[in-house]
Design goal:
Two copies of one chain form a homodimer. By secondary structure, chain A is of the alpha/beta class. Chain A has four domains: 169 residues, 3-Layer(bba) Sandwich (FAD/NAD(P)-binding domain); 117 residues, FAD/NAD(P)-binding domain (3-Layer(bba) Sandwich), CATH 3.50.50; 114 residues, FAD/NAD(P)-binding domain; 90 residues, Oxidized Rhodanese, domain 1 (3-Layer(aba) Sandwich), CATH 3.40.250.10. Helix content of chain A is 27%, strand content 25%. In chain A, strands 3-2-1-7-19 form a five-stranded parallel beta sheet. In chain A, strands 9-16-10-11-12 form a five-stranded parallel beta sheet, covered by helices on one side. In chain A, strand 13 and strand 14 form a beta hairpin. The interface between A and B is large, with 84 and 83 residues.
């Protein structure tokens, strides 16, 4: 067996996984991992919590270190080494030791690029002022901690309301810092659809966060002599802050690949085949820097996620070792905890399906995370997207407390297996009073969708204006109706629907709603049986309110 | 459309589901539900918590009541009505109104039997003494509550260590009552394999429970004048208690069906086809009284679970309405909370697979429920069973704290879809520091199994004595080895394996273990690459200790 020389550029998630697996597949290979920074294999997902003092011991963030790689895996790690160029013909890279300035060439048989993605720093006036930070590395978080202490930070502006932005917000609040979020879109957590996060908006505001949506930064200006920053937004608002966190998103670190003539996708990701191989057969690329296939939509996407990065690293290692493993694409399973709320999703969102013109149906539901008779049940808001013809699951979004991630994980598994809403209907999941229900929220999601597809209880959507021009029946109890209802709705409580049949028009669509959808379903069944063209407005009044709040 | 008359015997889970769905499918049918007891549709899974004062309001246990069935669903409910006989030729049942003694005949077009299962009361001397209770209904739990109050109960014996037994134990302790568990088998929670519940045994003992395994009751005797009971066991032990709970299991209520000549299975369950139809085409049966197909083993089983009972009720309603729905069988997904521990399972256990001579492989693992760098990670003990040829998932068992039910639910979904360990390897699940890891426990379970099946890192089992007669390498660090190791093991820390290759025999199997299996895997890979016949003892020292404790 000839001794292979495997060089890996970037030592976090994908790179580190690739290195370790390469060793497991080949004891004789020479494996060298280069990283620009002072650490490899650190827990970047933990950085916000280190800033927030939830993780207090910095060393906990080091999943592995250079010594461990050397001693356990016989992998050489070159920290603070910058790989400057690739000579694809000579199969060498040029590396600069950032500590000494020394520059050398290293030959490879296989080269793996895992450079990651860098936080976006838009070229705004004042962007380089002190006190403006992005969060990507341990040194970054150390600098933010230091700044908070040194400047006795009382106020912060977080630019961007995605995962990192929200996690940073919670952690800054945890340290007693008042936070303003500036988000260009009309919602936080852009992977979810807008109506699903109105509860998150409410929660943030209830926690004292100043939430400025549909507004972006125009410029940063210093205030006095080190008295903080002034942030001017596109809408003309002015905010003061001692600290600014940029959490706008990331862009693939593609310069090295681009300079070497490797193919780059439209959004900047290095293009690879399903073995994570670039257009140069000796060069592989993995992690946040690559363009991957969306498992649901089968279109190229750019999505920075740790799980897929690790998987890609292992697949590249397999490919280098001559194994036929392939990457099946990314579902986009993601989760974020914001105070007591869990926000989770897998698969495609409605806006993605709309953009790609992929046909879909959707249901909303708001079940308790466990049975109502056991104390402490909390609702989970769920939106399930599925194919109109086959019922195939396209995506799910859920916002709630306990048990939210569980439901998304179960549906993520079903989606991976090509499952349908009919499969969810039949799922046999854990039930004891503390955990779920004889009909789990996953079952309910499947049942509502299946009832729709079978034509048993066709759904209507609040987002579709049809209901506005027809008779709208509120089948809740009169006291619920009194407390608030959709303008124009007529109150026909479920239990009196049978008695009121003669008074309802049978020659036009009837739109029915209740609080969350269940009584609307019962009413729809009664009406349909008697020949009425009844539709149940999915998600009920609760979804109506969420959509109205957007 | 002719008006169908649907009679339903038994108004909990399966019966109530069937009644409600029958109405949704047919507005004109006459639907009557009979129940011997004073309530329908109550939450029997909540009863232990009502006894334990966790659920304080009895009315919470009533998911629906007779009035709701009447007003919402136009379903007549006859409470305290005992169905005595079925005349299959005349298609009538004879019903006794237990309140008035009146007996009448009721004709049916479709008859649904949902009589449930009754707690087993073995014919032991003294079994009918006051103070000995089983728990099936709201009146049962009311009587137990009353007894506790009236007799100032300080001590209880719980006979049986299954779900109900353990839930009752926790709830009695919650009320300040000292509990002794008597269990005939050498383990609690019989659906799981024995080595998986040693942690549960430890927990129960640490909570002050006197746990008597492999011992059954021989007789009950009164003590003095209402001073409690004396329980004598098969082994000759004598226990004193103010209260005895019988939680030995249940047997199908099959008398009515048996008297009517319906086919009954070997274990007493009413036999039905996949449409829940008995051998009489006008009679259906659902819930705990029927014999169902085990989804994994494809053998008939008797298993009282609320989720499947509900599904069966809906399927019977579909069948009666002429719809082709079928029951896909029961996976046996179940969960139980005992103090901080969650005990969950789906699919077949090892003992079931052994009994049925179904080939299987197994892996053990002990991952944290989330990443170790975030505070509060707790281990989950997992056992995954899978087919040796295809890697198809056969079953999983998990014991841990947070996130335990989630992993079982995810694998339950995969199992339902015919998934393999290779699918688990690839699962894309929620990851943020609070929720999981870039490699989730589900992924790890799949990877370990897949590495075994691919021959990359063949596993050995502690339960297979082979390792005892060969060289056993403990690849943990010397300090771990010092704290405890398997007798006869040689300590070769992982990082020195490469240096020690020359000292190891290459002509015989080498058995390797570490603490939980990961370092053992790395060592196995190194050794195999160099031609050694290395095997990794799955689950490591932690599983060894669990097996030794059985």
């Amino acid at each position: 067996m000839s001794q292979k020389r495997i060089l890996i550029v970037g030592g976090v998630a994908g790179g580190a996984s690739c290195a370790a697996r390469s060793r497991r597949l080949d004891e004789t290979a020479e494996i060298i991992m280069f990283d620009r920074g002072p650490y490899v294999s650190f827990a970047n997902c933990g950085l916000p919590y280190y800033v927030g003092d939830v993780i207090v011991d910095e060393s906990k963030l080091l999943v592995a270190n250079a010594t461990l790689f050397q001693e356990r895996f016989n992998i050489q790690v070159c920290l603070e080494h910058n790989v400057r160029t690739i000579d694809r013909t000579a199969k060498t890279i040029e590396v600069e030791n950032l500590k000494t300035g020394e520059i050398r060439q290293e030959a490879y048989d296989a080269l793996v690029l895992s450079p990651g993605a860098a936080p976006i720093r838009p070229p705004l006036p004042g962007i380089d002022l002190p006190g403006i930070f992005a969060l990507r590395t341990i040194p970054d978080s150390r600098k933010i901690r230091q700044w908070i202490t040194d400047h006795q930070v009382k106020t912060a502006v977080v630019v961007g309301g995605g995962f990192i932005g929200l996690e940073m917000t919670e952690n800054l609040l945890h340290r007693g810092i008042a936070v303003t979020i500036l988000e260009q879109m009309p919602q936080v957590m852009p992977p979810l659809d807008r109506e699903m996060v109105t509860g998150v908006h409410d929660l943030l505001r209830s926690q004292g966060v100043q939430l400025c949506l549909s507004d972006g930064v125009e410029r940063f200006d210093p205030v006095g002599d080190g008295e903080g920053l002034q942030i001017t937004t596109a809408s003309g608002q002015v905010h003061r802050a001692d600290l600014v966190i940029l959490a706008i998103g990331v862009r693939p670190e593609n310069q090295l690949a681009r300079d070497a003539g490797l193919k780059i996708g439209e959004r900047g990701g290095i293009q690879v085949n399903e073995q994570m191989q670039t257009n140069d057969p000796q060069i592989w690329a993995v992690g946040d820097a690559v363009e991957v296939q969306d498992f649901v939509t089968q279109t190229p996407i750019q999505i920075p996620l740790a799980g897929p990065a690790n998987r890609q690293g292992r697949i590249a290692a397999d490919a280098i070792a001559g194994r036929p493993s392939t990457f099946r694409g990314v579902q986009g399973t993601a989760v974020c905890q914001v105070f007591d709320l869990t926000i989770a999703t897998t698969g495609a969102s409605e806006k993605t399906l709309q953009r790609l013109e992929i046909p879909y149906h959707k249901v909303y539901l708001h079940p308790g995370h466990h049975v109502g008779y056991f104390p402490g049940a909390k609702p989970i808001d769920i939106k399930l997207l599925f194919a109109p013809d086959t019922g195939k699951i396209l995506g799910v979004q859920a916002v709630g407390e306990e048990g939210t991630a569980k439901r998304v994980d179960v549906i993520a598994m079903a989606l991976q297996q090509g499952g349908t809403v009919f499969d969810l209907e039949e799922a046999e999941l854990c039930y004891a009073p503390q955990f779920g229900a004889a009909k789990d929220p996953v079952n309910f999601a499947g049942m509502i969708a299946a009832n729709h597809l079978r034509g048993d209880a066709p759904l209507a959507q609040w987002s579709d204006p049809d209901w506005r021009s027809h008779l709208l029946l509120d089948v809740r109890d009169p006291d619920e109706f009194e407390r608030g209802h959709v303008p124009g709705a007529v109150n026909v409580p479920l239990n009196s629907v049978r008695d009121r049949l003669a008074t309802l028009p049978s020659d036009q669509p009837l739109y029915v709603y209740c609080q969350v959808g269940q009584r609307g379903y019962y009413a729809t069944r009664v009406l349909r049986f008697h020949g009425f063209q009844a539709y149940n407005l999915t998600g009920g009044y609760k979804t109506y309110e969420a959509i109205e709040a957007t």
